[in-house]
Amino acid sequence: MAKLTIQSLILTLLFTVISCSTINKIDALKPEPDDATPLIYESNPSFINMPVSVKLKDIENQTNSLLNGLIYEDNNIEDDDIEMKVWKLAPITINNKTAEKGNKITTVLPLKATVKYRVGTKKMGIELYDTREFQLNGLVTLVSDVTLINWNLATKTELKSLNWNENPTMTVFGKNMPITYLINPTIKIFKSKIESKIDESISKSMDFKPNVLMALEKISAPLRMSEEYNTWLRVTPLEIYSTNARLKNDTFILEMGMKCTMETIVGQKPESKFNGSKIIVKSVSKIPENVIANIVAISNYSEASKIMTKNFIGQEFGSGSKKVKVEKVTIWHKAGKMIIALDLLGSVNGTVYLSGFPKYNNQTKEIYFEQLDYVLNTKNKLMRTANWLAESLILKKIEQNCRYSIQPNLAEGQKNMMSYLKNYSPMKGVFINGKMNDIQFKKFQLTNQAIIAFLQIGGDVKVSVNGL
Q1: Which of 142, 171, 205 is the last residue of a domain?
Q2: What confidence category does residue 71 fall into, taking pLDDT thresholds of 50, 70 and 90?
Q3: N or C: which end of the chain has fewer CB within 10 A?
């Protein structure tokens, strides 16, 4: 039994010696990440066109929804000697059929009115009044000048005509007596009140701001651009530019432009940065047609490491019996460079550390690493274990795989983005259309959390808000 134990011990030692002579173990010092710039960056803003169009039919519908039945009532005869009640008898019609030029609309209001008009005086505490009541039933035609004031479609309305459906009457001794010859001069009694009521109703129904902000909030919700690469597009509005509203045929058009930041983010779905209270509104005379989109592409190191690991799957480096496989790649930032940790398995086991500067190949759309070399501590270990791995030829082959293409991201991103530029509707009445040119790389920025690439896209993006 003792003899067997000694033989077993000798065999074990022999196996260990043989193993150590064929497989080397690297125990290199890990270059710890340092504090690079936090994930705060400055990017050039993008500009997106946002024409808002509202049909007169929408204005008509909104006005009719606000004005129903009894649309005006004044029961105080003491302030101006007038009491008045006005009813809408049928739907109001609004059109641009007027001989006058400019932003003018015509409103036809079928109404019935009861007007009490008091004539008289009060002297020495004695009231000497005569109150007459008029019954009116007809079509009031009003013409309005239209402007945009603080996101409201504002009108200045003037009563142009009043056509009677029935002869105006006055109550005398409990009976309605025709008084057509008297009533026309008294139109001024309620003229200003009808005009202001129409202006008030249109103003309430034509407040664009809530609609525009609601549309912007929907647009600002991050959109998944690629499931495979888990990329998201986030748009954050900063400023809104608008021209004055203009009437074209049966539609009011408001040219708007949005200044915003655009980001593509790799990883989990980011939060929306939308804050309606911080959006600045400015008036301009003209909105540019062609716009530039500046996109910030954020690749966190964890996601980039996963992509690079895929490059090494099934690959062997070396020749003959001296070969290694890269099982895992991990990258991070240190002293202005990227550290690439390669977990090796084969003739050499362990982790080697490479360092280099990230670069971008605009032709292949790849992020690669220039001046790639072993970290000093790693290199010393290699010299003592497997010099062949430190040879420039092996390093060159490894370097070819220490890159990752964002071409699939860009292609997939463009493809998915185009699906959002073909009459995409994030909400009722809001439509996004446009075209895109090729994506151009501008620069890199390294942080302690991610590689940030700044990209630029030319094209034309329009967000149309139709109706209310």
Answers
A1: 205
A2: confident
A3: N
